[in-house]
């Protein structure tokens, strides 16, 4: 398996058309799968489309360029723009629809992930680095891609995307700002008013020229869903920001390392729900941290990758594999970001069985 690479060019609409043409098949797979999953929990396609229309109208006011690019994807992929909106806002749509129906939280679990941030003094070559597994539904494995965004009105950046999504899951930009994320969950997710969605925030972070601007994307407005944003800078700054619809918490590296999974870390005031239904989260972050510290001061890409391949408590491991059930999860990609060399490493699928590909922002 190999990740496709798109070097975007032109105006937003044209970039969207590039995306839609190259990833047309994968976009179709994602759209059909997520509509099927939504409907399996008691909603229907008409309700999903109506919710997507509401979000599309909201996004047009919030970020016209984002919507223009999204429309370009829809045109080239031969899909309704509402379907592409659903793929871009699926986390928020899913939780809003389920919250309205008071569905048990065990049905709300979205995408996992185990992440890390490494200060320069923790690595062998003195580079700030970020890493994560991107975990999600096993059915969409093989539909991610890497894209390079031109400078335009902002900075150039490199990201890993889900097919159909204009916002990246992780990435880095030309000034050395990088991002990885973890889904979180509280009892009030999906119950608030519409605000900037997760994928728009992740894109805006990578478009930031300064670290404070990147952070402001997260903290200026409360989100409708919970998320941990782990942001780093090549000059040696890393911060993990846990967010929920009504609270935020800031976490920092200890002895050069910080790790995170899908629960709110102990010691805060936010009531975490994810681990009640996915009990592997509390040990994944600690286990990854112990592995990284075993080579403190000399950590390199190979050592990080070895930690991302960990199979302790398989299949509910850092390198996640499908278990029995209707909607099994899997690691879709492992990502490592070198913020000094502006290099993104990634696998197409679980890292235990997929080669690590290298993508450089400068090329």
Any overview of this molecule?
With 363 residues, the protein is an alpha+beta fold. The model has no long low-confidence stretch (mean pLDDT 93). Helix 3 (45-62) crosses helix 4 and helix 7 packs antiparallel against helix 8. The strands form two sheets. An eight-stranded mixed sheet has the order 1-4-5-6-7-8-9-10, covered by helices on one side. It folds into two domains: 10-101, Arc Repressor Mutant, subunit A; 108-360, 4-Layer Sandwich (Penicillin V Acylase, Chain A). A hairpin with a 3-residue loop joins strand 8 (227-233) and strand 9 (237-244). Helices cover 34% and strands 23% of the residues. It has helices at residues 12-22, 24-40, 45-62, 64-77, 81-88, 90-100, 198-206, 211-219, 274-277, 281-293, 301-308, and strands spanning 4-7, 115-118, 129-137, 144-149, 157-162, 170-173, 177-183, 227-233, 237-244, 247-251, 257-260, 329-338, 343-346, 357-360. The protein has eleven helices and 14 strands.
């Amino acid at each position: 398996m190999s990740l496709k690479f798109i070097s975007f060019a032109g105006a937003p609409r044209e970039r969207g058309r590039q995306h839609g043409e190259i990833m047309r098949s994968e976009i179709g797979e994602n759209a059909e799968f997520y509509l099927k999953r939504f409907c399996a929990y008691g909603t229907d396609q008409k309700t999903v489309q109506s919710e997507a229309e509401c979000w599309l109208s909201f996004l047009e006011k919030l970020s016209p360029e984002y919507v223009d690019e999204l429309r370009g994807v829809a045109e080239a992929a031969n899909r309704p723009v509402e379907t592409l909106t659903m793929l871009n806002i699926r986390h928020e749509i899913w939780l809003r629809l389920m919250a309205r129906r008071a569905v048990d939280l065990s049905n709300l679990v979205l995408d996992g992930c185990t992440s890390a941030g490494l200060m320069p003094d923790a690595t062998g070559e003195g580079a700030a680095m970020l890493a994560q597994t991107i975990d999600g539904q096993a059915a969409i494995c093989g539909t991610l891609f890497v894209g390079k965004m031109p400078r335009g009105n902002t900075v150039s950046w490199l990201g890993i995307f889900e097919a159909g999504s204009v916002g990246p899951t992780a990435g880095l930009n030309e000034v050395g700002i990088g991002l990885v994320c973890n889904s979180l969950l509280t009892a009030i997710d999906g119950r608030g008013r519409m605000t900037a969605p997760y994928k728009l925030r992740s894109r805006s972070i990578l478009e930031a020229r300064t670290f404070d601007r990147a952070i402001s994307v997260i903290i200026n407005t409360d989100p409708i869903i919970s998320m941990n944003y782990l942001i780093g800078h090549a000059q040696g700054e890393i911060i993990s920001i846990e967010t929920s619809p009504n609270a935020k918490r800031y976490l920092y590296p200890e002895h050069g390392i910080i790790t995170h999974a899908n629960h709110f870390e102990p010691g805060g005031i936010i009531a975490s729900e994810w681990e009640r239904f996915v009990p592997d989260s509390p040990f994944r972050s600690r286990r990854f941290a112990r592995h990284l510290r075993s080579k403190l001061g000399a950590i390199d890409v190979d050592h990080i990758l070895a930690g991302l391949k960990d199979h302790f408590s398989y299949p509910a491991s850092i390198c996640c594999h499908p278990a029995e059930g209707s909607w099994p999860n899997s690691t879709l990609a492992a990502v490592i970001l070198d913020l000094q060399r502006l290099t993104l490493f990634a696998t197409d699928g679980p890292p235990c069985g997929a080669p690590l590909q290298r993508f450089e922002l400068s090329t």
